[in-house]
């Protein structure tokens, strides 16, 4: 942790106090109320998956997206 933040234990204690006081929930809720949806972003990141993680050898077969709605 950068020295500018102080001792790690002090940072941890402050974080725990904020969590217990629902500070993050209240901040996110306040930000969501004032959200401007004039711009929206979609993350198009691509992550390489190991062969076994992508359904190779007997996994689900790929179907066209329209087939999902039809069942």
SSE order and pairing:
Blueprint: H1 8-20, H2 23-33, H3 65-70
Explain what you see.
With 71 residues, the chain is mainly alpha-helical. The chain has a domain at 1-38. Helices cover 42% and strands 0% of the residues. It is extended and about 50 Å long.
Tally the helices.
3
Using the alpha-carbon principal axes, give the shape. extended
Q: Biggest sheet, open or closed, and with what strands and sense?
A: none
> What is the H-and-E element order?
HHH
Helix fraction, binned, reads 40-55%
Number of strands: 0
Q: Indicate the mean pLDDT.
A: 79
Output the radius of gyration.
22 Å
Q: What percentage of the residues does DSSP assign to strands (E)?
A: under 5%
Distance between the termini: 51 Å
How does the helix and strand content classify structurally? mainly alpha
Low-confidence stretches: none
Descriptors for this entry?
71 residues, extended
Q: Summed up, what is this model?
A:
This protein has a domain at 1-38.
């Amino acid at each position: 942790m950068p020295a500018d933040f102080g001792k790690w234990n002090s940072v941890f204690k402050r974080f725990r106090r904020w969590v217990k006081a629902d500070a993050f929930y209240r901040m996110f809720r306040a930000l969501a109320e004032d959200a401007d949806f004039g711009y929206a972003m979609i993350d198009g990141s691509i992550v390489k998956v190991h062969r076994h993680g992508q359904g190779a050898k007997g996994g689900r077969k790929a179907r066209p997206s329209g087939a999902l709605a039809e069942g």
